[in-house]
Amino acid sequence: MEQRINAYEKGPGAFKALYGLGIYLAKSPVEQRLLNLIYYRVSQINGCAYCLDMHSKDLRAAGETEQRLYVLDAWREAPFYTDRERAALAWAEAVTKITNNHVPDEVYQEAKKQFSDEELVDLTLAITTINTYNRFNIAFAVKAGGYKVGDHAVQA
Is the whole model's pTM more than 0.85, yes or no? Predict the structure, then answer.
């Protein structure tokens, strides 16, 4: 598929606003490795090839194992994710796939056990931000495969 619009070139103001969110999240008390894992999982849910390519490369460069990446789609059945990661993954899935206009109370309660209020706000911002990037990349058919680690590094 051919890229429809280069939104990064044609909408610099929009992306400047999104980059501001990235700068903020780079300073979040939520671990960057966990945020990147969430970005990858949300991109799986949304089917964003560009973001899957990018975040898998970033995660591997940061030391993430191939096993954890390969099995992330089935994290509930896999034994190698921490309770904190599980709570974040459940929260990310619920926020991404909001049904009946709510996030289940049990998912919220598990997230509250693992994250402070500030961290939960930041985690939610990270989830909504990657959902925005996914939608831009999917809508404009951004080609996957050319990303190199550090191409979109945040200058905090």
Answer: yes
